[in-house]
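Quick question, first post here. What does this chain look like in 3D?
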Amino acid sequence: MSVYPAARGVPGASGTPAARTASAAPSRARVLADRAAGPDRWMRPDPRPGAHKVVVLALDGVYPFELGIPHRVLGSADGRYEVLSASVDGRPVRTDSDLTVTPGHGPEVLADADTVVIPPYAVSRAAAPDPQALAALARVRPGTRLVSICTGAFLLAAAGLLDGRRATTHWALTDHFQELFPRVEFDAGVLFVDHGDVLTSAGAASGVDVCLHLVRQDHGSEVANRVARCCVVPPYRDGGQAQYIERPLPPADGTGTGPTRDWALQRLELPLPLDELAAHAAMSTRTFARRFREETGLSPGRWLTQQRLRQARHLLESSDLPVERVAHEVGFATATSLRRHLAAQAGVAPSAYRRTFRASGPAVGGADGGSAPGD
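> Answer (accepted):
Ran it through. Tokens below.
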């Protein structure tokens, strides 16, 4: 995929000073190009044989930032994904900025995709998008995983793929989305919604969250954490986390709840009641609960449950500890409590979750890659 200014010539085009310099000293140009590509080659190696094929469908008015998210995040998973870009007709696509992008493929690649990602685009007031977009989406074979970022959900909804299902998009588009698609159960208060075969996510950075979620679901938290470190982004934000914070963040004056959150993460196996957390932060319970929600968008109890589940999933993936021991290590009172919370979050029991990632072990660490579990 190439990117160039919509109303200007391509820098370095034939006849320009840059082109003449490159032709006069090709070895120097190659050296500079290799240096520039060096880190990117390390972060985004060539796809492994049989890698999970992801096609990013760029629609007219696409947002450039979100268009690049699947390439950067999934492309940083050590060759486990082959990420391609496509347009509905194989032609360049106008973005919502002063750029035009040229995807590397036309709609024909959608027929072979394992996952299709619809990044956001400038939506109109009409219910139906460009008929070519619907025709392109119709090429997707049954069983292919579909993922939307922000307004990409409008295309999935227009195609009837979200009818009767819970879905999300950017909170600012709540009224518009509900007006156009009343048969969709819209949830404006979450980062993303995962139905397994169809995922919808909110605006901008939630595209990073949902792509990391795909890596975690496909290959486990170890791989997802490495990808997050490579991309210099937080490794985990739960899909049920609030999209936005209504009140401004408190000033960074050392009086927030961050130190107490760090302290709690080192003691997840303990009960950690609200009054103990508040005492550590030297606040009343009421003030602590209010500031905690301001800073995280979650109540202290819900945040603790998320952190305990995150650690439990890591232990299930990376250890042979019995489920009862895993529950104890992360602070759930009983194995039953862990099972209930994990089922609510991931839809499976701890033993089934462990079997999934143990079964995918060769694909995760082997030299030949492989598709996602269950593909």
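The first strand starts at residue 2 and ends at 5.
The first helix runs from residue 17 to 24.
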